[in-house]
């Protein structure tokens, strides 16, 4: 008995126009990031589980409940990457990049895996465009990265991206904030917090600040502010980031609740949201992570980075139908098909896109296929044209038609495209 197969929940097949949109995002990212000195790194989808536990943090939602983790045939625990940063850090350390360049700028794109509840813009296999700048403590590195991200989003045509920014402080000032927050949480009615926040109150209290439940937000509206606990160095760093953004006329909103869901961040954190997919859903997020490389056994190298969610970007871009072919060739007998086959290769060699009809279907049916293909030019080779090595070229939009030798088609199409 045969059975049919279906996709795994939260995993998608991607056809045009969405796949076209993804290609466009990746190409745009490559073009913009190249101008800032970024090079492309591709890392494996699978890593040893403890890399993620160590970097993302044992108490985070990602590590606690969202990773696809399993033993390999030798019983070693492996995890499908839930994000790119950890793997990029491992690769950076393993390749000894620190000995080769003072600052490394690495970007990577591809699928990530998190076992979350699927909904629009939230998948179990999703895709990120991820950038990491390693080797600079300067606030200008943070600002440059944010400016590059916003320039990428604007070039893509994302509607009104808005930037939210905060500073998490460093390992010397954040514990003071954490204590103040814990004291505050001890004074509220904890039983009114949502299930997730009740769990986090002791293990990861900062995450309570970015809970999206209105009840939790109301309960914590008077919570202490991170920025008020930043030490002088962290304050100076944050102010310099803001000044650099202001200097480039980039607007931002300080969001005191922005803490991010991964443990490796320090100082600057940021997210980009767009009203079109809901102000609480981030299209991109990132921040500084100065202790991360060292904590993974590497040199004491600072870093700052971000990732964009491509499914979420796709929701903001709408359909992209710019991938229409140039030609569609109808061939109405065997000799015509042989000529059409050769003509199609020549046209592609000259840079045009398109296809021929391989069948012996009627003229009407082949014309229907030509219309469906969306091609601009329909090239018709019937028995009469084939006998003289000619072709009739029809511009589908206007209906204008002209016969010519097959040898002249390339220059004709080039001329028409330039008009
Ligand atoms: P993140 O905030 O966990 O950060 O993810 C970055 C972006 O990935 C989110 O803003 C969102 O657009 C997208 N995203 C996350 N989960 C899903 C999902 N289940 N479905 C669809 N899209 C999703 C990071 O991953 C950090 N590694 C970013 C970073 C790089 N920080 C420094 N360097």
Write the layout of secondary structure elements.
Blueprint: H1 18-35, E1 39-40, E2 46-48, H2 49-56, H3 61-66, E3 68-71, E4 77-80, H4 85-94, E5 104-113, E6 125-134, H5 139-156, E7 162-167, H6 174-186, H7 195-203, H8 214-219, H9 226-229, H10 232-247, E8 253-254, E9 266-273, E10 282-288, H11 292-295, E11 303-309, H12 310-317, E12 327-331, H13 334-349, E13 354-356, H14 363-373, E14 377-381, H15 383-387, E15 390-395, E16 401-405, H16 409-418
Parallel strand pairs: 1-5, 7-8, 12-13, 12-14
Antiparallel strand pairs: 2-4, 3-4, 5-6, 6-11, 7-9, 9-10, 10-11, 14-15, 15-16
Bound molecules: histidyl-adenosine monophosphate.
Histidyl-adenosine monophosphate is lined by residues 83-85, 114, 116, 121-123, 126, 128, 130, 132, 261-262, 282-287, 305-307, 309, 311-312.
Provide structural commentary:
The strands form 3 sheets. An 8-stranded mixed beta sheet has the order 1-5-6-11-10-9-7-8. A 5-stranded mixed beta sheet has the order 13-12-14-15-16, with helices on both faces. The chain has 2 domains: 18-173 and 230-317, Bira Bifunctional Protein, Domain 2 (BirA Bifunctional Protein, domain 2); 327-418, Rossmann fold. The relative contact order is 0.12. A hairpin with a 5-residue loop joins β3 and β4 (77-80). Helix content is 39%, strand content 21%. The protein is elongated, with a radius of gyration of 28 Å. The model has no long low-confidence stretch (mean pLDDT 95). With 419 residues, it is of the alpha+beta class. It contains 16 helices and 16 strands. Histidyl-adenosine monophosphate (HAM) binds at residues 83-85, 114, 116, 121-123, 126, 128, 130, 132, 261-262, 282-287, 305-307, 309, 311-312.
């Amino acid at each position: 008995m045969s059975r049919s197969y279906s996709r795994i929940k939260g995993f998608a097949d991607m056809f045009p126009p969405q796949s076209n949109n993804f290609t466009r995002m990746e190409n745009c990212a490559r073009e913009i990031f190249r101008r800032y000195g970024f090079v492309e790194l591709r890392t494996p989808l699978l890593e040893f589980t403890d890399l993620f536990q160590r970097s993302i943090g044992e108490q985070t939602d990602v590590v606690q409940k969202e990773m696809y983790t399993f033993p390999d045939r030798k019983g070693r625990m492996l995890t499908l990457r839930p994000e790119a940063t950890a793997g990029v850090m491992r690769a950076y350390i393993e390749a000894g990049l620190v000995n080769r360049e003072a600052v490394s700028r690495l970007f990577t794109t591809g699928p990530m895996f998190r076992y979350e509840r699927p909904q629009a813009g939230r998948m179990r296999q999703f895709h990120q465009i991820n950038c990491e700048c390693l080797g600079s403590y300067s606030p200008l590195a943070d600002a440059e990265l944010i400016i590059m991200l916003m320039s990428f989003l604007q070039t893509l045509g994302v509607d009104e991206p808005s930037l939210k920014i905060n500073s998490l402080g460093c390992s010397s000032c954040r514990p003071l904030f954490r204590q103040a927050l814990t004291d505050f949480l001890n004074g509220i009615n904890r039983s009114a917090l949502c299930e997730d926040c009740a769990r986090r109150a002791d293990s990861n209290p900062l995450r309570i600040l970015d809970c999206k439940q209105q009840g939790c937000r109301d309960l914590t509206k008077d919570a202490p502010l991170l920025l008020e606990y930043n030490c002088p160095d962290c304050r100076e760093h944050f102010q310099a980031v803001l000044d650099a953004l202001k200097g480039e006329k980039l607007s931002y909103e300080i969001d005191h609740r922005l803490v991010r869901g991964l443990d490796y961040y320090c100082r600057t954190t940021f997210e980009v949201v767009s009203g079109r997919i809901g102000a609480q859903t981030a299209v991109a997020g990132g921040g500084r992570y100065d202790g991360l490389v060292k904590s993974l056994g590497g040199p004491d190298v600072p870093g700052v980075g971000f990732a964009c969610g491509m499914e979420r970007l796709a929701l903001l871009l709408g359909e992209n139908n710019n991938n229409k072919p140039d030609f569609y060739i109808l061939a109405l007998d065997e000799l015509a098909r042989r000529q059409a086959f050769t003509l199609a290769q020549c046209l592609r060699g000259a840079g045009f896109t398109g296809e021929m009809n391989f069948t012996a279907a009627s003229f009407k049916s082949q014309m229907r296929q030509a219309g469906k293909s969306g091609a601009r030019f329909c090239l018709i080779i019937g028995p009469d044209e084939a006998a003289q090595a000619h072709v009739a070229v029809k511009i589908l939009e206007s209906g204008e038609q002209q016969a010519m030798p097959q040898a002249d088609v390339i220059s004709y199409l080039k001329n028409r495209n330039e008009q």
